[in-house]
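Let us begin with a simple case.
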Amino acid sequence: MDCLFVIDYQKDFVDGALGFPGAEKLDSAIAARVREYGPGRVWFTRDTHGADYLNTREGKHLPVVHTVRGTDGWQVYGETAAALREVGAVGIDKVTFGMDVTDPAAAAALPESADRIELCGLDSNICVISNAAVLQSRYPEAQLMVDARLTASFDPALNEKTLDVLAGMQVEILHR
């Protein structure tokens, strides 16, 4: 099966607490890709924190409260949110950069098998690359891909370096 994973395309990463210029420009293209894949082939992650975020390991390194469950910033952004609803995409909440495939809820939500996995979303250098590694371990025979037009980072130079690292991990980089 061919699968699409939309990684953390949430309001706080687009125009909220950790948003950056240009992140909003991915919205219509990600939404279009979601619709291309269609029902039964799309998953999405949500970075999900609690009120205690600043006391966590991540919060101590990145002391900016963001994507707290149930807040506006936790919601998926814009047209992408509508597209995910339209195709009945499966959501996976995660408390750190990559999905925890040992978590029973996450494991149950993931596809049984995958031949081809495309990832898109934010931020390329944190959560996209982390989830690429997780998915590569979970589906060792699947071909992973990242479309360079559908991911970004707050730091464009770091985004380019991340695409290089992904390519080194045998992830195919599309449209670079």
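The second case is a distinct protein. As before, the sequence precedes its structure tokens.
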Amino acid sequence: MLFASATTTTTTTPGTQNFLLPNGTFFVMLVIFLIVLGVISKWILPQLKDVEETRKVRIRSAMQKADESRAESQRLQEAREQVLSEARAQARSVIDDANHGADLEREQGRQLGQVEYDRLLEVSRQETEEECRRVRSELVGRLDSLVVAAAERVLGSRVDAERHRALSDEAVAVASERS
């Protein structure tokens, strides 16, 4: 009820107001709109254009820097690839040199081993010959006593050892001259 007393009712007769014809509020709103439009175009739009132009400049600068960075990155990538290629070639060269050096060392070791083998073989041969001579002379020294003992057993009588030794020495001397 409170609303009912506060509101005033105006009675209009139907058909007196045409919605196509503007009333006074329309003109007031039009004037306010034009004023706001003028204020926006005079003071706000130039600042927005300045901000827009500043952003365009920043974007162009950033794009130019990005292009420069991309070109620099590509140049550095190519330089890196070249350095890696050179490093690989150098590593291959070092490995080849090391393999070649190892082959030379192995061959030198083999040759030294062969020389040492030949030397030891010669020393062994000399020692064997010396031992053979020593054994031969020992056998020759004992041979006369062995032969005398064998002859005594076979003959059943005593054999003169001095005479037999002289004969044995003579036979050994003749055999030594022939060999």
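Residues 1-10 have pLDDT under 50 and may be disordered. DSSP finds three helices and no strands in the chain.
Keep these points in mind for the review questions at the end of the chapter.
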